[in-house]
Amino acid sequence: MDNILTFKNVNAGYGRVQILNDLSFEVKKGDVYGVIGPNGCGKTTMFNALIGLIIPTQGEITFNGQNVTKMPANARCQLGIGRTYQVPRPFEGMSVFENVLVAAVHGAKCSEHEGREVALEALKLTSLYEKREIRAGELTLLDRKRMEIARALGTKPQLLLLDEVAAGLTEAEVQDVMKMVADLKAANYSIVWIEHVIQTMVESTDVLMCMAEGHNLLIGEPREVMNSKLVEEVYLGVEEDE
Ligand SMILES: Nc1ncnc2c1ncn2[C@@H]1O[C@H](COP(=O)(O)OP(=O)(O)OP(=O)(O)O)[C@@H](O)[C@H]1O
Ligand SMILES: [Mg+2]
How far apart are CA 106 and CA 127, in angstroms? Predict the structure, then answer.
């Protein structure tokens, strides 16, 4: 089977407020799938529906061919869906290693022994191995982002969800993030990556979706999507939000 993830005509929101509006897209195994769209268009909400924080009122979400639309969040995490948060919530007083270990033991339900191995592997993949004993609260912004990804990797995902991990970084740091994503792809992770930093979306993704008002406005080759009139128009009215 070719797709790791499909959204089919999904509606979802918060209480009575519907945010996702007939959202459909599919992600091939092994791809880096980019998602752009103006502030508030529902990108993070799409992740919330995918991990089970909110349950769609219409449509279907399948992961590796299995219908997960109404599955509880912890069960999805154990199936292999791992996310980073747009606003990271590390345990500041714990070491970097302990933060990732918690994800492995609680997210992936690893034994402590296995959790240690999974955590160390995640720290190597994110270039944090040497910093594993540092307190999380003392990390630089880039290393915090790395740790967020390591924590997601700690849950042993097949599909990794990245929510604006490049936001607020310098150009050189953005290059580091792009290198890390390339390494993760090479290590066989499938990735959905939400980002406003255009360079990352053009250079690091295999397919790009632009969302608008909770819907899949345009999906295609990243450069073509980025240069399209439709996408330009959708951003024009909201430039000041960027
Ligand atoms: N927990 C919530 N309860 C109610 N409304 C929410 C909640 N979270 C988000 N929203 C609303 O849902 C809409 C979509 O928000 P969402 O966070 O998905 O946008 P986004 O595309 O990720 O934007 P950004 O690029 O700014 O991160 C917004 O109008 C937002 O105010
Ligand atoms: Mg968001």
Answer: 23
- Give the distance (Å) from ligand 1 centre to CA of residue 202: 24
Ligand 1 atom nearest residue 214's Cα = 14
Q: Which domain holds residue 124?
A: 90-156
Q: Establish if 16 belongs to a structural domain.
A: no
Structure tokens at 75: 């069960």
Structure tokens at 111: 């034994």
Residue 150 to residues 62, 93, 154, 182, 203: CA-CA distances in angstroms? 25, 17, 6, 15, 22
Q: Does the structure show a pLDDT above 90 at 86?
A: no
Q: Tokens at residue 215, please?
A: 């819907």
- How many domains does the chain contain in total? 1
Q: Yes or no: say if 125 and 187 are a contact pair by the CB < 8 Å rule.
A: yes
**Ligand 1: centre distance to CA 117 (Å):** 36
In a domain, 68, yes or no: no
**Would you place residue 88 in the very low, low, confident or very high pLDDT band (cuts 50, 70, 90)?**
low
Whether 95 is covered by a domain: the verdict is: yes
Closest CA to 151 of 179, 121, 172: 121
Residue 68 pLDDT > 90: yes
